[in-house]
Amino acid sequence: MNIDVLQESLTIIRLRKKEFAATFYENLFAEYPEVKRLFVGTNIKKQETKLMTVFVIVISNLHNITYLKNLLKNLGTRHVKYGVVLKDYDILGDILIKTIKSYLQEKWTVEIEEAWKYAYQTIVNLMLEGATNNNTNHYDDRLPYIPSIVEKLRAEAIAQKYLRDGRSLNLVKHKLKDDYYFKELESQIGTAQTMEIISDVVKRASQKELNYNKVTIS
Ligand code: HEM
């Protein structure tokens, strides 16, 4: 595999990373609308970042094949759950090459095309190994979890409801700790930091609740 060629073209793409990822999904859905069904309910903006992060991680770690093997096998196992089938990998590969080509323009060469096709196929082969082997741990290599503003607002609404029902601040914190989002967050960033975020959410919720009461009483 021509690692230098890959890294060079990745450097060009990374200069316009966000734009590239957005174009990638635009091209995907325009040319293969049938795959849209897999992304129902997906936050595409977040998904764009995740996909790009994997490409950057993979291309930057081509020398550390053991690490990559585990990461990609587990990713492949999770893709079975997302409903992704073999044919979808060909579709994504086709769009990947087309999108890179449109970004590199006159810098695009047969050598780059071959290097990317080879790299993509290697990634897919490892993911498919994970898709057929269920002994992998699905969670140990997830991408760093970024506390999501949408999830925090959702949690705030839940907390507000409990507070309105007369529950104590401590009880609301405990309830939130059992929520799927905070469980996932806890596994990513640890209990202490998660509890800090929960405290913040509950504080904001109780503030909102106070304001709500003021408005309804006056
Ligand atoms: C090189 C191949 C691929 C890479 C590197 C990749 C990367 C990722 C990553 C990092 C995630 C985030 C969730 C997780 O870590 O489990 C994800 C989720 C997902 N991917 Fe892929 N993927 C690939 C191929 C595909 C293909 C071929 C499809 C189908 C066309 C697909 C559809 C999905 C869907 C539906 C999700 C779930 C989105 C959600 O959370 O709602 N992926 N992918």
Which short descriptors sum up this protein?
2 domains, 218 residues, Globin-like, binds protoporphyrin IX containing FE
Name the quaternary structure. single chain
* Percent of sequence in beta strands: under 5%
- Can you summarize the main beta sheet? none
Return the string of H and E elements: HHHHHHHHHH
**CATH architecture type of the largest domain:** Orthogonal Bundle
Q: Give the proportion of residues in helices.
A: over 70%
Top-tier CATH class of the largest domain: Mainly Alpha
Task: From the alpha carbons, calculate the radius of gyration and give it in angstroms.
Answer: 22 Å
CATH homologous superfamily placement of the largest domain: Globins
State the shape: elongated
Number of strands: 0
Segments where pLDDT lies below 50 for 5+ residues? 136-146
Bound molecules: protoporphyrin IX containing FE
Structural class: mainly alpha
The number of domains is: 2
CATH overall fold name of the largest domain: Globin-like
> How many alpha or pi helices?
10
Give the termini distance in whole angstroms.
71 Å
Question: What can you tell me about this protein's structure?
Answer:
The chain has 218 residues and is an all-alpha fold. The protein folds into 2 domains: 130 residues, Orthogonal Bundle (Globin-like), CATH 1.10.490; 69 residues. Helices cover 76% and strands 0% of the residues. Helix 2 crosses helix 3, helix 5 runs antiparallel to helix 6 and helix 7 packs across helix 8. It is elongated. The site of protoporphyrin IX containing FE has 21 residues, from helix 3, helix 4, helix 5 and helix 6.
